[in-house]
Design goal:
The structure holds three protein chains of three kinds. By secondary structure, chain A is mainly alpha-helical. Helix content of chain A is 76%, strand content 0%. Mean pLDDT of chain A is 80; it is low at 79-101. Classes of the chains: A mainly alpha, B mainly alpha, C alpha+beta.
């Protein structure tokens, strides 16, 4: 299908690098790995640029590939939710550090403990503001499956936040000398 | 969206990419350009070989098998995930029951 | 009934024991399951016979620890039958029908080993096993939550202790990953 849109690679990088990096970072929980993934995603975009038909298509393509590459990296690196769960529990047993991590940071930690499909669905929902139908198109999955992942993932996050939010509040109070 | 979901939106706001990322991407892009011709010939050669293989049906069969195997594996994981969820719920109930009995 | 999520976990035992002449077959979906599926907002249905399990297992070779643990878990099983139904609201399913299903499996062949009820929320969990010659040849779990019904039937030699290893496989984490089976050996929770 002919299209008039002329992609500017550098402009696409400027426009979407935060999105791609953030998706990779929150999928893998590893900043260095997220940078590598972001770089690979854009280099792959460069190879497929002639197939990109519009700015919206570019955004869609980048989200899909960022999630896919992150999932691949997770499997290779064997980043296990259980490891991060143990890390959260062990941190609670230590003396509070002078700098208390933010609630947002804690929610990111908890996100990393979720199964990969739920993590991806939640990220696309709450970072990218996509509807379940758009998420389904991005992940090439049935809408019912996406909704299931969103419901389960949200439920898990709520449950974990209910447990760890108490710890977060206690740490803040401890730091303030309450 | 409820309050918790709003918190999630805030927590998951996009983070700025590292300042060096764009330069690295552009640098790598430039360094790969000269290889494009060699890469193209390599791809053409691979396509020729693949075409020969496909004409015998071998490559297609292998990919199909791999795809089906991965699909089956994913089904197993889905089944085990649901099982794990149910058993965790069972444990929560048992734990709650135990706490109630201790009171 | 309010907020009942029924997780039906049927573990059908693999009748691999030579003394048993009975064939093991995965069940056909019951009319009750079809009704649940019709009302649910999200449905997961997995039916894996012995051949499919063996085929999937052949793709879990190599050094990947998760794949190895998964393969260990499913090796020797005759079948896995899982149904999971999630509903938008509470009260979407008929608890009378679920009770009928439960009673159907509470026959002489099946022994109940877990029976938990939470009156306040209507939640419940049933775990039943089928024994032959002193060994488990089937496991059935029915878990009811306010907005979810799950059915798991595992055919084959399976024990709750075996299923406790699920938490060691990445990607299968559930709500509170630290919850452990009471009967589980503590060392299973360690990496």
């Amino acid at each position: 299908m002919a299209h008039d849109w002329k992609p500017d690679f550098e402009q696409l990088v400027d426009e979407h690098q935060s999105m791609v990096f953030s998706l990779a970072l929150r999928m893998t929980g590893d900043r260095g790995l997220a940078e590598e993934i972001a770089q690979d995603v854009f280099l792959e975009l460069d190879r497929h640029l002639d197939k990109i038909e519009s700015a919206a298509h570019a955004c869609f393509w980048l989200r899909r590939v960022a999630i896919s590459r992150s999932a691949d990296a997770l499997r290779r690196r064997k980043v296990r939710g259980l490891d991060l769960w143990v890390e959260i529990k062990e941190h609670h047993g230590l003396q509070p550090e002078p700098r208390i991590s933010s609630l947002g940071g804690r929610l990111e930690d908890l996100l990393a403990t979720l199964p990969e499909p739920q993590r991806a669905a939640l990220l696309l929902r709450y970072q990218e503001d996509l509807t379940p139908e758009e998420i389904a198109a991005t992940l090439d999955a049935p809408v019912a499956t996406v909704k299931s992942h969103l419901q389960r993932g949200l439920k898990l996050l709520r449950a974990k936040a209910a447990v760890h939010l108490k710890e977060y509040v206690r740490e803040k109070e401890y730091a303030r000398g309450v | 969206m409820d309050e918790f979901e709003q918190e999630l939106r805030q927590a998951f706001a996009r983070q700025p990419a590292p300042p060096s990322l764009k330069n690295r991407i552009l640098r790598n892009r430039r360094s790969r350009a000269p290889q494009s011709h060699a890469h193209l010939w390599q791809r053409l050669a691979a396509v020729l070989v693949l075409t020969l293989l496909l004409s015998g049906g071998f490559a297609w069969h292998q990919r199909e098998r791999q795809r089906k195997g991965e699909a089956a594996r994913q089904q197993v994981l889905l089944a085990l995930r649901i099982t794990n969820h149910a058993l965790n719920h069972m444990n929560q109930q048992l734990a709650a029951h135990g706490r109630a009995n201790q009171k | 009934m309010k907020n009942r999520i029924i997780t039906f976990i049927f573990a059908a035992a693999a009748l691999s024991l030579p003394a048993l002449a009975q064939a093991t077959q995965l069940p056909a979906p019951s009319p009750i399951e079809k009704e649940l599926a019709a009302r649910a907002s999200s449905v997961d249905e997995v039916t894996l016979d012995k051949n499919t399990l063996a085929f999937a297992s052949s793709f879990m070779n190599g050094k990947d620890k998760d794949k190895a643990e998964t393969r260990q878990l499913i090796d020797g099983l005759e079948g896995i039958y899982v149904r999971d139904y999630e509903f938008d609201k509470e009260g979407q399913f008929d608890t009378g029908q679920i009770e009928q299903l439960r009673k159907y499996y509470e026959s002489a062949e099946w022994s109940s080993i877990v029976r938990e009820r939470v009156r306040k929320t209507g939640e419940s969990t049933d775990v039943m096993v089928k024994m032959a010659n002193g060994k488990t040849v089937g496991m059935f779990i029915l878990d009811v939550e306010p907005k979810e019904v799950s059915i798991v039937l595992i055919l084959g030699p399976i024990r709750l202790e075996d299923l406790s290893k699920l938490k060691n496989i990445s990607g299968l984490d559930s709500a509170l990953g630290g919850v452990e089976f009471k009967t589980k050996d503590k060392k299973d929770g360690q990496q």
